[in-house]
Amino acid sequence: MGREYAYGLHVSSRQEEVMSFQKPPGGTRGARVPPSNAVTRALNRVAMSWHRRSGDKFQGQDLLYLTTVGAKTGQKRQSTVARFADGEDAWLVVASAGGSARHPAWYHNIAAHPDQVWVEFGGRQLRVTPTQLDGDARAQAWQRITQLQPRYAGYEQKTDRTIPVVRLARAD
Predict the structure, then answer these.
(1) Per-residue model confidence as pLDDT tens digits over 29-65
(2) Residue 90, C-beta contacts closer than 8 angstroms, at least 6 positions apart
(3) In the prediction, which pLDDT does 23 show?
(4) How is residue 167 annotated by DSSP?
(5) Burial call 70-86: b when 16+ CB within 10 Å, e when fewer
(6) Could you tell me if residue 69 is left (phi over 0), alpha (psi between -120 and 50 degrees) or otherwise beta?
(7) How many CB atoms lie within 10 A of CB 149?
(8) Predicted local confidence at residue 29, as pLDDT
(9) Which DSSP symbol is given to 59?
(10) In the CATH hierarchy, which fold is given to the domain comprising 55-172?
């Protein structure tokens, strides 16, 4: 049988092999993020199409399209996030939500279903294994990310939560 994690998600024995992180708590302050509704989802689909046509880039950032399975709904969800190369067939993504007090939905989805995560960019789609970076590995990655994209340091200033950094590596 699986085990309970601190955040109340039950993880099956298959997921325990893949589950490599626990969610840090949300914060008490942060930037305001618009609610997800039919209008914002439609706008996101339009933006995603535009980003694909522009070479998977936006405001100087390389993008990837992250597909997860909803923690509550069990339905596939797609989000556009910035990617930072981290070796061959591996990328770092940041669960910043623009400095919000809450983690983004895609992060909750990865925690709930870590064995059901895919990335797409450059015309290819890959299943990936997520690993949350902690300690020195996170600190080194964070330093590299904020040097490449200083806006992330600003997000960290807006919130009192620890902003997760997740490594997505191509699954075998």
Answers:
(1) 666 676 677 776 666 666 666 656 676 676 678 889 9
(2) 167, 168, 169, 170
(3) 72
(4) E
(5) ebeeeeebebbbbbbeb
(6) beta
(7) 18
(8) 63
(9) T
(10) Pnp Oxidase; Chain A (2.30.110)
Residues 103 and 74: their CA atoms lie apart, in Å, by 18
Q: What is the pLDDT of residues 113-147, one digit of tens each?
A: 999 999 998 888 999 999 999 999 999 999 999 99
Sequential DSSP letters for 73-117: T--EEEEEEE-EE-STTEEEEE--GGGBSS--HHHHHHHH-TTS-
Give the SS3 label for residue 140: helix
Domain segments of the chain as ranges = 55-172
Residues 6+ apart with CB under 8 A from 67: 76, 77, 78, 117, 118, 119, 120, 125
First to last CA, the chain: 25
pLDDT of 4 reads 31
Q: What are the respective helix, strand and coil percentages of the chain, to the nearest 5?
A: 30, 30, 40
Taking alpha carbons only, the member of 49, 36, 171, 46 closest to residue 102 is: 36
pTM over 0.90: no
